[in-house]
Amino acid sequence: MKEQPEARSIVFVVDDDASVREAIGSLLRSVGLQVEVFGTAAEFLKNKSPDVTACLILDIRLPGVSGLDFQVELAAANIHIPIIFITGHGDIPMTVRAMKAGAVEFLTKPFRDQDLLDAVQIALERDRTRRAQDKTVHELRHHYEALTSRERQVISLVTAGLMNKQIAAELGVSEITVKVHRGSVMKKMGARSLADLVRMADALGIKRARR
């Protein structure tokens, strides 16, 4: 049963050296991981990959676009897949650029099998966490969209730290009305406390009213 989570994960390998692709593919499959290999960045982009936890092992030097430039292209296309760079010609500026852009690891060939396996596990866990966070935000946004315009005003004022009396004065309604709206907001958003509601507002990027 231990391999079930990995059955829903894919490791993509992009390297123009067929022997390297196959060696990495064999290594990853030997520990129960699903692997897909490509010779170029273009081949990878043409691939219709399933929407599952994944990471990308990417060679720095590729025909056409370089690995570093491809990293930038993926980010620009809103493709947030964790990247592990491998290279036979690494240098410090290259490593710094890759890591600053969010790479999980930068391995220089020849690297130890265990170093690559460790990096893959970190990358998959990072993607798993991101996907869970994205799902949570999506659900919160769905709840937020169910709020009335008045309730959206209330959530903005409540999470800014205003008391019911202050909110009532701000909106020109009674304090009782504010309490009703506030209770409705908490229920619709599924918030258990004010701190919970504040975290939700932050996750959604709701602009808080100025005090």
Instruction: Indicate the CATH class of the largest domain.
Output: Alpha Beta
Lateral strand order in the biggest sheet: 2-1-3-4-5
Radius of gyration: 24 Å
Considering the protein shown, what is the CATH homologous superfamily of the largest domain? Response regulator
Taking pLDDT < 50 over at least 5 consecutive residues as the criterion, the unreliable ranges are 1-6
Q: Would you report the number of β strands?
A: 5
Taking the alpha carbons of the first and last residues, their distance comes to 53 Å
The H-and-E topology, N to C, reads as HEHEHEHEHEHHHHH
Q: What characterizes the major β-sheet?
A: 5 strands, parallel
CATH architecture of the largest domain: 3-Layer(aba) Sandwich
- The multimeric state of the shown protein is single chain
Helix content: 55-70%
Mean pLDDT: 91
Class inferred from helices and paired strands = alpha/beta
Hey, roughly how much beta strand do the residues contain? Answer: 5-15%
The total number of structural domains is 2
Shape label: elongated
**Which fold name corresponds to the CATH topology of the largest domain?**
Rossmann fold
